[in-house]
Design goal:
Layout (H helix, E strand, L loop, with lengths): L1 H14 L10 E7 L2 H8 L5 E9 L15 E8 L6 H10 L8 E2 L2 E2 L5 E5 L2 H18 L6 E4 L3 E3 L7 H4 L1 H11 L1 H9 L3
Parallel strand pairs: 6-7
Antiparallel strand pairs: 1-3, 1-6, 2-3, 2-8, 4-5
Length: 191
């Protein structure tokens, strides 16, 4: 957690944001590969109230799991800014992906699994861009994660929501088979 705090502090300082009084909750959208894994990771951050799996970034209306071409698998994170800053949420997101992979995440490869931070305003863009630059410096490699303008977020089907919690054996088999934890440790080792 100390490394996460340090990353968030660096991101916040680099983005030069001193926000006004915070709203009751805020939302942020991230594409982090498989939305089951992104959802399970983001739910663990203190201050996060809700995480919804879905699709974003494409132009098609009402995407489904069977037909979401052009969209990225994404999560919509609702958080309490009195408990956790946007900079911390972004830093936490980066720590739970391989930001150097331009083709997807771990065993999930292809356009739908690419990573992105969707930003809704210039303040979020500065914070996300600063986080990306900090991560690139920290890893010493180019970061493939895009900072993109917010797009409509479409919730995924009900059976995808809270998948890790509702289907722990199936999710754990996927996570282990995909090598997610091993790969994350390799990417972030000692950083």
């Amino acid at each position: 957690m100390d490394r996460l705090r340090a990353l968030a502090a660096a991101v916040l300082a680099a983005s030069l944001i001193a926000g006004p009084a915070a709203a009751a909750t805020e939302t942020a959208v991230f594409a982090g590969g498989c939305f089951w894994s992104a959802e399970a990771a983001m739910e663990k951050l203190p201050g996060v109230a809700d995480v919804v799996s879905g699709y974003s970034g494409g132009t098609s209306q009402r995407p489904t799991y069977q037909n979401h071409e052009g969209h990225l698998e994404a999560v919509k994170v609702t958080y309490d800014p009195a408990k956790v800053s946007y900079a911390t949420v972004v830093a936490y997101f980066f720590r739970h992906i391989d930001p150097t992979d331009p083709n997807g995440q771990f065993c999930d490869q292809g356009p739908a699994y690419q990573t992105a931070v969707f930003v809704k305003d210039e303040a979020e863009r500065r914070t996300a861009t600063a986080a990306k630059a900090h991560v690139q410096k920290l890893l010493g490699k180019p970061v493939a994660t895009e900072v993109r303008a917010a797009a409509r977020f479409w919730p995924a089907e009900a059976y995808h929501q809270d998948f890790a919690r509702k289907n722990p054996a199936r999710y754990n088999a996927y996570k282990v088979g995909c090598g997610r934890e091993r790969a994350l440790k390799a990417v972030w080792a000692g950083r």
